[in-house]
Amino acid sequence: MSTTQRRIIYSIILLLGFAWIFVSADRSGTSTAGQIPAPQAGFLAPDFELKTPDGETIRLSDLRGQAVLVNLWATWCPPCRAEMPAIEKIYNEYKEAGLVVLAVNMTYQDDPFEVVPFVEDHELTFPILLDETGDVGSAYQLRSLPSSFFIDRDGLINEVIVGGPMAEALLRTRVEEILK
User: pTM for this one?
Assistant: First the structure.
């Protein structure tokens, strides 16, 4: 095969590739636009349903229209313990504006008998949820504790903060952003 024939074949393949891209492009604007659940900024927050220590069931998707801070934590985690007072303070400041805090205890890797005393000792008033199976930890691709997900009123994750403890100023700015 001559050089000219190869160039012609390569040119035809290239033109067919461009034609395929043009024909298959989504011009309707109906692509996912972040509507597929994924535990990262810009995507819909993965839904979950968990129980509180009192047996009440809370589902994340039922909170649409409110700004939600999902904080994954454990009683044995020093940064988790350190940031809880700041989370409680911010929650009390912004709950009337529509902030909901869901503190999801990683019960499958924690002592379940330590959760209620921890909540009482720290005088936490926001809902504490128990992830007894690790399903929420898996859905949110938990790699480190604490991990916090700031979810806007449309259910989209605005920001993810892995590690801690989070400072009160950081919490305040992130919460104000999701309350907009």
Answer: 0.80
